[in-house]
Design brief:
Elements (H helix, E strand, L loop, with lengths): L2 E2 L14 E2 L43 E6 L5 E11 L10 H4 L7 E15 L4 E9 L9 E5 L4 E5 L7 E5 L5 E3 L9 E7 L5 E7 L2 E9 L2 E10 L4 E4 L4 E6 L4 E6 L4 E7 L4 E8 L5 E10 L2 E11 L5 E7 L4 E8 L1 H4 L1 E7 L6 E6 L8 E2 L10 E9 L4 E7 L2 E6 L8 H8 L10 H14 L20 E3 L3 E8 L7 E9 L6 E3 L5 E3 L15 E6 L5 E5 L2 E8 L3 E8 L3 E2 L7 E2 L26 H6 L12 H11 L1 H17 L3 H15 E2 L2 E2 L9 H4 L2 H7 L1 H10 L12 H4 L2 E4 L5 E3 L11 H17 L23 E8 L13 H6 L18 H38 L6 H28 L1 H6 L1 H23 L4 H17 L5 H16 L1 H22 L19 H4 L2 E2 L14 E2 L12 H12 L15 H32 L2 H19 L16 E6 H12 L13 H6 L10 H29 L1
Antiparallel strand pairs: 1-4, 2-6, 3-4, 4-5, 5-6, 7-8, 8-9, 9-10, 11-12, 12-13, 13-14, 15-16, 16-17, 17-18, 19-20, 20-21, 21-22, 23-24, 24-25, 25-26, 27-28, 28-29, 30-31, 31-32, 32-33, 32-34, 35-36, 36-37, 37-38, 39-40, 41-42, 43-45, 44-48, 45-48, 46-47
Helix pairs in contact: 6-7, 10-11, 15-16, 15-19, 15-25, 16-18, 18-19, 20-25, 21-23, 21-24
């Protein structure tokens, strides 16, 4: 086949050297089968042509294959098709024009190109061709245009296994350039030039790295390298944002390459692979197109819109297999934002161009008419947008050019959408914010300008009209100059068929006059000004405040927004107070938000406290309606959900707190399970107030935990088999699944030095990266089948639960670190579920064990230094002893500072924790005795004994983090906490008896243990001492003692109150020696006290205590207390051992965690739940998709109570049958 080149242009007219351009959007168009977000592949359906002699060789626009624009729209690169003549056809029989027609069936295009042209964009918005590269210079026969820089560098994608790209310098003759990496066998997943001039390259093989290259002396030199654990695809924006997709855990993470800051995490539905992403011009919205592939064939796909503010999914649009999205663009950012979708039918290659409301993705409208307005725009084209303009670059009126999208038609954008395209979706208009601010400031300059004045009220028939694009608003004044005067608004919609205006569906008329209670009724509502906004909402400025009214079909007119005028008159009642007539009625802030319809946040405190305020005769509660709309609409939840929840909690409005939480849950879950995996981030509204809910709404929180105890990340039950959600894996139960990335530079100086040496060595020998080709060898290691377990993947549905605030001060964090929701929400109910145990396992394996062993090692050195001196002091010289003691003091200061930081952070928790008493006692005793030893050469034995005991007990307590010992520590302290009140009662009883016996048995006179006293006091120790009487020869015992054993301090332990407590404790244990010296026959009071004490305390209380301990031990779930114990250890590590930036490491603190559970364990647990053996607050919710995945019958098994009841009924029936049989037998006889 003979190739047909684009060098025969005799039939074409001469074109000017410059192609005129308006403003436009340059972006990238992606071939889905290459999964490249920066390329436009154009079908060969262009039939008309126009040549140009402005460059080196005239170009045929009909043969344009791809278009790519540089980041700052300085250059545009185009490739041209290499067209073959089909066999059996003679090209000479056709005209030159026919030979070059890409649609002619005589010719075919197989992906090869003839050349690439580079065009510069001049200041006057004209295209000037500056250079071209012929196809024979490109090694790859079928290259795909990948990127073009603002420095005239062009990159092509190739089909090579390694080094799958080629880069050319288009400034001269198209010199081939190379990029050098430390590892030569690299697979480039994606690359892009940024506005800052850098080249960002994402590698997925053999390792996962992100490289940043800078242009220095006409060479691309590596400046930064980021090492990542794993990602499937990378998407790079011209603003320097990196979006990584992980197809193991199906998450998108967005990073800022320049600051290394994590920005957003988004979930997509399990089994779907991301093909396209697009960020809007303001950086607030993220559009994601993902496809479900079955045997490499697209079966269905989804279009997602996420808020980059918090990663919450705003809207989803589903496609079937008959439509594949090729590209998408955000357009008209300030005029009324829309998402332009370019898709095709894979079965007939039919092209479709649609517009959607990016906030709802509902009711798409065809946009083909948009490209066929005054300018005829055909494939190929791309759109390059900024906040002010949308530039279309492509074939415009049969020539390559640029035009401004919003200048393609004569009317304004919103009118064109409504009347020409039939788009009646809601419009969020950025320009309205500035418009409203200007209206308010204008009115503040003229305080007497009122729309309705008391002395000059309009007549009833006067109905001011405020027309919009789609709606018309009318105001009317009812019963003027009377006590029943009221202001009404009416909304009418344009009937598209008849052209008439008709009342809107639902409430078409509403009274806007508030029914104030005294003293507010003395001030009447006055309208200062009204205006219909660009999105057809009605803005109303009044002495009551700023009100925006909208229409929600089928509800009708609704109050959409309130802000400004009313003040809080009374802190307790929050009654509305209009203030003095001369006061500034609006208090407009200067820091207005900069995004669509984002006027200052509504006065939620006033709205909530006055939600029952009524308006008009119907007594409609507009504030209550506004709150209901806000907590049920995703847009408002995303933008105002956090502040609404905080306000509900601040005002202690428990009903609306639970109502809002339940709404968030219902928007995320259904009876089948997750509505969509992408909705999981919506639960962050609840998680953000987790500690407050734990304190003030524990019942609801317990219910929420039961509803989210076992959640599968898969939302579509039809994909269970293809999703690998249940699979055989050689992993432990409740181990985490997947990996998580942290964007950080880990390249050492040695690695950088070696990379530089390799770079210059390769240049010296003339070897490029593409010369290396090493086929990866498969691993011979095979897992034994016996190691695999049937597992299922579950998700911890607590987004941002473990995360710390993004914004922080390093010094403040070192002094008093900010807690996460995890560290401030350690509760027993939380740790009854697998979610929490899986979270603990993830934290312990990721960083906890490492930090714990380091801490233990430091303490072990502290322990050994001190105990070596006090135990083996004879083996050390004085100098060595002093050195070890000084080392002990230094390590003691380290531990003491650590304890002090814990006390400062939360002194209440510190005091309540029993571990801290051992810690502080061991540290202080050790440091004090070390100081004394250094000063005196020795220390009191009792002090070193106590210090050693405390040190070794603390060493023992380190074992509590390991399950084989930790469960027993948890049991000991858990039971002790639960029996604390009973122990308090026993302590008071011991105190009371000790005090009584002290008063009864203490000596009445002074005495000395060194000199005998001859008193008749029966409590005198000398009278209680043991005496020895002589025995005569005849065996008679003398009544007068001849010897006496000197008494000691234990002869009468009731002499002092302190020893009385010890004596009563000995009596409690059954030792009666403290009262053995007294004759009970002569002391009736002592007899009564001892009888009472022995019966009630020793017999009754102690046996009761033993029984209570037995019950508590059996009722205590040691695993739950052990997990709480381990969570406290992890919280301590995070807050007091980690540096502030380490607490923000997303590899350690991801927003969403997936974990693996053994199916056998899950089935057993489900069975226990179904028969009613769950010990939590409420039986956990088991979704239908979960039961289907683990193959458990959905019919619940009868509980034990139901079984017993059924058996009793059967026995009763059997007894009645036997009685009837006996009666019948008796009658027969």
């Amino acid at each position: 086949m003979d190739p047909i080149y684009d060098d025969d242009y005799d039939d074409y007219e001469d074109d000017p050297a410059h192609v005129s351009i308006d403003t436009g959007y340059s972006g990238y168009y992606q071939d889905p089968y290459y999964q490249d977000p920066s390329r436009l592949t154009v079908p060969g359906d262009i039939s008309s042509r126009r040549g140009s002699d402005s460059g080196i060789v005239p170009d045929n626009v009909d043969a344009i294959a791809e278009i790519v624009c540089s980041p700052n729209m300085k250059y545009v690169a185009t490739t041209f098709k290499y067209i073959y003549e089909k066999p059996g056809e003679k090209s000479g029989e056709k005209s030159s024009a026919e030979q070059q027609d890409a649609e002619d069936p005589t010719y075919e295009y197989d992906g090869k190109i003839s050349k690439v042209s580079l065009w510069s964009v001049t200041e006057t918005k004209e295209l000037l061709k500056v250079s071209e590269i012929m196809a024979h210079k490109i090694i790859e026969p079928e290259p795909k245009l990948w990127a073009v820089s603002d420095d005239k560098y062009i990159i092509f994608r190739t089909n090579y296994f390694y080094y799958n790209f080629e880069i050319f310098d288009a400034k001269g003759e198209g010199e081939h350039k190379d990029l050098f990496f430390p590892n030569p066998h690299n697979i480039v997943n994606n690359l892009a030039f940024t506005k800052s001039g850098n080249l960002v390259v994402a590698l997925t093989g053999p390792t996962h790295h992100i490289y940043i290259f800078n242009l220095r002396h006409n060479e691309w030199i590596e400046s930064t390298k980021f090492e990542l654990s794993y990602f499937c695809d990378a998407f790079i924006t011209v603003e320097g944002k990196l979006i990584l997709f992980d197809d193991q855990i199906f998450q998108l993470t967005k990073w800022d390459i320049s600051t290394l800051a994590f920005e957003t995490n988004c979930m997509i539905d399990w089994c779907y692979k991301v093909w396209h992403v697009e960020v809007n011009q303001g950086g607030e919205l993220l559009a994601v197109y993902a496809v479900y592939l079955h045997e490499d064939t697209p079966k269905k796909s989804k279009l997602y819109i996420y808020s980059l503010k918090n990663g919450i999914n705003m809207a989803i649009h589903d496609y079937d297999e008959s439509k594949i999205v090729d590209s998408m663009y955000f357009i008209a950012y300030e005029a009324g934002e829309r998402l332009l979708i370019r898709s095709r039918n894979p079965f007939n290659d039919e092209l479709s161009i649609e517009l959607m409301d990016p906030f709802t993705l509902k009711t798409p409208v065809s946009a083909k008419k948009l490209l066929e307005s005054n300018e005829q725009i055909r494939d190929p084209f791309i759109i390059k947008s900024d906040k002010k303009s949308d530039n279309i670059i492509g074939v415009i009126n049969d020539s390559l050019g640029i035009c401004e999208l919003l200048e393609l038609f004569q009317t304004d954008w919103i009118t064109y959408l409504r009347k020409e395209l039939g788009d009646y979706n809601r419009i969020f208009v950025l320009s309205d914010t500035e418009k409203i601010a200007k209206m308010i400031n204008d009115e503040l300059d003229d305080e007497e300008k009122y729309f309705i004045d008391k002395e000059n009220s309009p007549k009833i028939e006067d109905r001011p009209t405020y027309p919009g694009k789609f709606l018309t608003w009318r105001l009317s004044y009812k019963n003027p100059n009377t006590s029943g005067s009221a202001i009404e608004i009416e909304a009418q919609v344009l009937d598209q068929i008849s052209g008439d205006w008709r009342p809107v569906e639902g409430e078409s008329t509403r009274t806007v006059t508030p029914n104030f209670q005294p003293p507010e009724h003395t001030r009447k509502l006055k309208i200062i000004q009204c205006e219909c906004l660009n999105n057809d909402d009605l803005l109303m400025l009044s002495n009551f405040g700023v009100l925006i009214w909208t229409v929600y079909p089928p509800k009708g007119i609704r109050l959409h927004y309130y802000w400004g005028r009313a003040k809080i008159r009374n802190i307790k009642t929050f009654n509305l107070y209009l203030g003095h007539v001369n006061e500034n009625p609006f208090h407009l802030p200067t820091n207005l938000k900069t995004y669509a319809n984002a006027f200052p946040d509504s006065k939620f405190q006033i709205i909530i406290k006055n939600k029952n305020l009524t308006f008009g005769e119907k007594k409609d509660s507009y504030f209550k309606e506004l709150l209901e709309d806000y907590i049920s609409d995703k847009y408002f939840i995303i933008n105002y959900g956090s502040i609404l929840m905080d306000t509900f909690l601040f005002l202690k409005d428990d009903e609306w707190v639970e109502k809002f939480c339940q709404t968030c849950y219902d928007l995320t879950f259904s009876a089948e399970g997750l509505r969509s995996t992408s909705d999981i981030q919506l639960l962050s509204i609840i998680i953000e107030v987790f500690p407050q809910l734990l304190q003030r709404h524990p019942i609801y929180l317990a219910r929420f935990l039961s509803q989210t105890g076992f959640v599968m990340p898969l939302a579509d039950s039809e994909l269970i088999l293809d999703s690998e959600i249940a699979s055989l894996l050689p992993t432990q139960h409740l181990a985490h699944f997947g990996t998580y990335n942290q964007l950080s530079t880990k390249t050492s100086l040695i690695e950088t030095f070696v990379a530089k040496i390799m770079y210059y060595w390769n240049k010296l020998i003339g070897k490029t990266e593409s010369d290396f080709d090493t086929t990866p060898q498969p691993s011979d290691k095979e897992e034994s089948a016996s190691e695999f377990e049937a597992t299922i993947k579950l998700i911890i549905p607590f987004p941002k639960f473990v995360n710390y605030p993004k914004n922080y001060s390093t010094w403040e964090e070192l002094r008093n670190p900010s807690p996460s929701y995890f560290t401030s929400s350690i509760d027993l109910e939380l740790y009854k579920y697998w979610n929490s145990e899986a979270l603990i396992n993830f934290k312990w394996k990721t960083y906890g064990l490492r930090y714990y062993l380091i801490s233990w090692s430091i303490y072990s050195v502290f322990l050994c230094c001190y105990t070596s001196v006090v135990t083996l002091n004879d083996f050390f010289t004085t100098g060595e002893q002093v050195f070890l003691l000084y080392l002990s003091i230094g390590l003691g200061f380290y531990h003491l500072i650590h304890e002090f930081r814990q006390f400062i952070h939360d002194h209440n928790d510190y005091i309540r924790s029993p571990w801290n008493y051992f810690d502080i006692g061991a540290i202080i005793f050790t440091m004090l005795t070390s100081f004394i030893w250094i000063k005196n050469g020795t220390a009191p034995t009792w002090a070193t004994t106590i210090a050693t005991l405390l040190l070794e007990l603390k060493f023992l307590f380190y074992f509590r983090a390991f399950r084989f010992v930790g469960v027993y520590f948890a049991m000991i302290f858990g039971v002790a906490k639960r029996a604390y009140s009973f122990l308090t009662i026993i302590a008071f009883v011991v105190f009371a008896f000790a005090h009584s016996l002290h008063l009864l048995l203490r000596p009445s006179a002074t005495y000395s243990l060194d000199e005998p006293s001859y008193s008749d006091d029966p409590n005198d120790p000398w009278n209680l001492a043991t005496t020895y009487n002589p025995v005569d020869n005849d065996g008679t015992i003398s009544t007068q003692p001849s010897l006496i054993e000197p008494p000691d301090s234990s002869t009468n332990m009731f002499t002092m109150f302190g020893t009385s407590l010890l004596a009563v404790y000995l009596l409690l244990t059954g030792d009666t020696s403290p009262i053995g010296s007294w004759s009970l026959q002569d002391n009736l009071t002592l007899v009564v006290l001892m009888f009472t004490f022995s019966f009630f305390t020793t017999i009754y209380f102690m046996n009761l205590f033993i029984g209570l301990l037995s019950n508590e031990i059996s009722d205590t779930n040691n695993n739950e207390f052990y997990l709480i114990q381990k969570a406290e250890i992890l919280a301590e590590i995070e807050l007091f051992y980690m540096l502030p930036h380490q607490r923000r490491n997303k590899a350690w603190f991801p927003e969403i965690i997936i974990y693996i559970a053994h199916v056998s364990e899950l089935r057993d647990l489900i069975r226990e739940i179904q028969i009613g053996n769950w010990k939590g607050f409420e039986k956990p919710f088991l979704s239908q998709i979960l039961l289907k995945a683990v193959q458990v019958q959905t019919d619940e098994i009868e509980s034990e109570e139901e079984t017993i009841k059924k058996l009793k009924d059967d026995m009763r029936e059997l007894k009645e049958m036997v009685e009837r049989l006996i009666n019948n037998t008796g009658q027969a006889s």
